[in-house]
Amino acid sequence: MSRRQRGMARRAARSGSGPIPLEAAPPRWPGAANTFSLVGAVITTGLLVTAGSVAVISFPSALATGIRHLRRGLKGDVAPMGRFWRELLAALPGGLLVGAAGLAAALLLLLNISFASSGALPGGGTVAAASWVALAGVVLLIVSMAGRWTPGPGWRRTLRPTAAELSSDPVGALFILAAAAFAVLVARQFFPLIIPALGCVALAVVAAPERRRAAADA
Q1: Is 91's pLDDT higher than 50?
Q2: Sign of CA dihedral 117, 121, 122, 124
Q3: Which of 37, 148, 172, 218 is the most exposed place for a label (fewest CB within 10 A)?
Q4: How many angstroms separate the CA atoms of 167 and 141, rounded?
C-alpha cells in the first residue's frame, strides 16, 4: 500500500467512512470522529437544553440531562430522545432547588453590580469587580455540577466533588467558564444562537476532563 493510500485509509477510519485497521485502538469518542456528526450532536443537545430550560430555574436539570445525552452520543451509544426526557424528570426535584438558588444569587449579584456601578457607593468599582467574580463563580459551579449529576446520587452529592475538581483543575474551570460566557454573549447579540451556544457549553463540560486525561497520558 502506498503512502497516499495509507493516509486515505487513516482519514477514512477517523471519519467513520472506512474500516478501522486491526492494529488500531478503537476511538474513545467515535461520535466525534465526523465533524458533521459532532456539529449535529451539539445543536441537538442545545435544542434539548433550551427546551428544558423554559422555566429558567429548570436550567441546571436540562443542562445535566443534555450533557448526559451528548456524552452518550459522542461515545457511540444509543441516545434516544425519550431517555433525555425521562432523565430530565428525574433531575427536576433537586435541580429546581439548585436553579432557584442560583437564580436568586445571580439576581442579587447583578443588583449589587448595578448599585455599585451607579457611583453612589464608595469603592463601587471594587465592589462591582468582586460581584462579577462571584457571579462567574456561581455560573461555573452550577454548570460544573450539571456535568457531574447522575440519576442515582442526585444533586446533593455533586457539590463537594465538583468543588474539589474545579480547585484541582483551574484551566479546565476557565475552559468551561469561557464557554458559558460565550453563550451569554451570543444570546445577547442574537437570542436564537443560544441553541448552539448551550450545546457548546455541554460539549465544554464533556471535553474538560478529557483534556486532563490526555495531558496525563502524554
Answers
A1: yes
A2: negative
A3: 218
A4: 11
